[in-house]
Amino acid sequence: MVRAVSSVLVLVLASCGLSAVTPAIPPDAILDHIKFLASDELRGRGNGTEGLERAADYIAAEFKEAGLHPAGDGSNWFQPFQLTIGVTVGDANRLVIRGAKQPVTLSLGTSYLPIAATPSDAPVSITGLPVVFAGYGISAPEFKYDDYERLDVTGKAVLIFSHEPQENRADSRLNGNRPLRETTVYAKAMAARTRGARALIVVSDPSHRVDEVNYRAFPADPDPEDHAIPVLRVQRDAVAPLIEELGLERLAKMIEQDLVPRSRALPGITLDYTQELAINRRTLRNVVGILPGADAARDDEAVVLGGHYDHVGLGGRFSSSPDRTGDIHNGADDNASGIAALIEIGRAAAADRSRFPRSLVFVAFAGEERGLFGSAHYANNPAIPMADTIAMLNLDMIGRPRRGVEVGGMGTAQPLRAEVEGAGKIAGIDVRPSTIGAGRSDDASFLDKRVPSLHLFTGFHDDYHRPTDDWQRIDAAGTARVATLALELAARLAARADRLQFAAP
Q1: Around Cβ 403, how many Cβ atoms within 10 Å?
Q2: Is the pLDDT of residue 279 over 50?
Q3: Which of 53, 116, 111 is CA-nearest to residue 87?
């Protein structure tokens, strides 16, 4: 889509009595990009998915239209790398719970799904594994609550309820109505595994009227985590007779009342589990464009501007609402906002190239949500050598600047704080030091190479990694001001007479 760079100067500057040298980034252009990147048709831009590939093609086309040059492998826009993502599902997967009046047989993708598994090319087969009940599966001694106290789970399968007791009570000693970190699937799996459990079975707890997990989503997006033991989410309706026979719902309600754990062995209850899940390797792509510097004597040095374009797809282990696995997590703020800004910064810089004596490299990273893999790959295979990369600006979640923007990494080179504050005045946005510090996103890959790096971020919110992070909640005008801040910073750093000296954060 063709857009002219706005000739309107940064809004609010007149009222602040400031003179601007940077054209404003147009909010409508920002929002148009976000609407596409965060649309349902891209299905959450999960790594290794068609939606992510469509996003990569879109970004490359926009970089080209903006006036950038391709700087990926083989002089194209893309820099591919390999990553293990998801599994191939075999035909032999099966889960049976025995010992009740009638065995409960569950089917993958219908009545159970593996939240975590132990992927391998050889099937896993477990027969006759004793089952114990461990309440909510929470070990939080600092809150005087431990479902595993005096419970032997060694060599057994552990059956637990999801969520936590008293989760909606502000007066609960379990951190009030804020979720405990011990409530996450990761923490519950670790609590079971470190005590010797061989498997963990999770059932929706009785305080929730319905089991919200979409079990049919797993075959469509099979991507379990590896916690060294199987972690199996089981449909509540399918095991309701067993739960009633064992009196476990009654125990859960008692725990809800008094926060006294009621874990116990379940004599005669055993588990049979067959797992056939093979590891997949996928090719992901960074998208890389370059704006050559206007000064031939300095265009072999670069400022990198980056942000990740992947999100968490249909949720699963990456979701903050794991019960809504299967719903599209569109990731409008995280991080369609940063990529939209990256595209428009490139367009504005190309239209005013004389302001950038050094080159600008624009990189949309894949693999961030899985551990910064895209930025790590770029840092080891840069378009311009790391020794000649004078700074990196990372844009991640910049779509909700209600209180301005947080900037991390200002201590990674002595002049950066003054540069950030000066650019903030030009952009007309409040700037404050980050509360989460430096190196929490793709900037970490550059800090590891001793490149001064800044991380622009407008804060976490209740929609983070949830299906509700949609474009309608984006502050387009505010996002455009953050983009203008980054553009002005890039111009200042690209034009500095001296090189920034790295200081460890």
Answers
A1: 11
A2: yes
A3: 116
Over pLDDT 70: what percentage of the chain?
94
Nearest to 296 by CA among 361, 382, 358: 358
Q: What would the DSSP string read from start to end of 374-396?
A: HHHHHHHS-SS-GGGEEEEEEE-
Identity of residue 416: L
Distance CA 384, CA 480 (A): 28
Where residue 304 falls (left for φ over 0; alpha for ψ -120 to 50; beta otherwise) is: beta
Give residues with Cβ within 8 angstroms of 116, minimum separation 6. Answer: 185, 189, 200, 224, 225, 226, 227, 229, 230, 231, 317
Instruction: Kindly give the pairing relationship between strand 157-161 and strand 124-133.
Output: parallel
The mean per-residue pLDDT over the stretch 210-225 comes to: 83
Give the span between the Cα atoms of 358 and 184, in whole angstroms.
Answer: 46
Q: What are the beta bridge partners of residue 291?
A: 360
Q: Would you say 335 and 34 are in contact if contact means Cβ atoms under 8 Å apart?
A: no
- 503 vs 412: CA distance, rounded Å: 5
Residue that the structure tokens 């265009």 belong to: 299
Distance CA 15, CA 84 (A): 52
The two tokens of residue 487 are 């553009």
Write the single-letter amino acid at 123. P
Phi/psi for 432 (5° steps) reads -140, 155
- Higher-confidence position of 230 and 217: 230
Token readout for 191 is 């609590």
CA distances from 34 to 27, 58, 427 (A): 11, 12, 21
This prediction has a pTM of 0.71
Distance CA 185, CA 274 (A): 21
Domains of the chain: 13-84+281-495 (3.40.630.10), 91-275 (3.50.30.30)
pLDDT digits over 44-72, tens only?
999 999 999 999 999 999 999 999 999 99
Length of the chain: 505
Report d(CA 235, CA 226) in Å as an integer: 21
Cβ pair 438, 451 in contact under 8 A: no
Strands 104-106 vs 94-98: parallel, antiparallel or unpaired = antiparallel
Is 187 within 8 Å of 221 (Cβ atoms)? Answer: no
**Residues 6+ positions from 414 with CB-CB distance below 8 Å:** 500, 501, 503
What the block records as the tokens of 275 is: 């797992």
Tokens of 116: 């975590």
* Whether residue 20 has pLDDT greater than 60: no
Count of C-beta atoms within a 10 Å radius of residue 109: 16
